[in-house]
Amino acid sequence: MNPTIELLKSHRSIRKFTDRKIPRELLEELISAGQCAATSNHVQAYSVIHVVNPENRRKIAELAGGQAHVAEASDFLVFCADVKRSTEAAERAGAEVVRGMTEQLVVASVDAALMAQNVAIAAESEGLGLCYVGGIRNNPAEVAEILKLPPHVYPVFGMSLGYPDQSPEVKPRLPLKSILKEDFYDDRQDEEQVAAFDDTMHRYYLERTGGNKESSWSKELAPLFTTKLRPHMREFLNKRGFEMK
């Protein structure tokens, strides 16, 4: 493997950070690298909020489910899907803009995710650690208010960034054969491959917790599919101007 692939395959979520601060110049380089990600039709439908105010960091940490690293990391970023800038630019250029289309929501969400992943890779290449924070969608309206987000902008996820103060193991991934399919969607071996992966994850959880966690990949999925996860998101997105027409 070349160094880039090795870096990608060594990703871990870091939730404990040292007190060392990321230099401002480096942070801006990371964001600049993020901007070089692919973007649909060059729309660049994202904005990044660098949350500096300690009280706002503390509030967001609680709103995200009590994730202390949001407040404790050197830096905390919120990646937003943003169609405000682009639609207003098109209007100023004389277009009769149609807002609220589902595809606009998809494009902006994908753009924000691609941009963030570039930031993540750039950060890890500099010896930094990070943790994505989807928990900000637990209370997205409150987060949007703290960040003073205008209509047609919504917070997709956050990212805690800093110098790692822990070195967790790399979490196993599904077997390649279960996600790479040739020519058509072939699920004939899915049950067998998932069962094997459940065994792998069972061993991983036991080793990581010193024998205190008996679980598997399939069991860990239960909260995602046995409850109505974040049912408020549809109404929230509608109020943000993402009407999903």
Automatic annotation (TrEMBL):
The yes or no answer to whether the keyword Flavoprotein is present is yes
- Which Gene3D superfamilies does the UniProt record give? NADH Oxidase
Molecular-function GO term, any one: oxidoreductase activity
Task: List residues of the Nitroreductase domain.
Answer: 9-163
Q: Which SUPFAM superfamilies match?
A: FMN-dependent nitroreductase-like
Q: Give one Pfam family, short name only.
A: Nitroreductase
- Keywords, in A-Z order: Flavoprotein, FMN, NADP, Oxidoreductase
Q: Which residues form a coiled coil?
A: none
**Family according to the record:** Belongs to the flavin oxidoreductase frp family.
Q: What is this protein called?
A: Nitroreductase
- Which source organism? Marinobacter subterrani
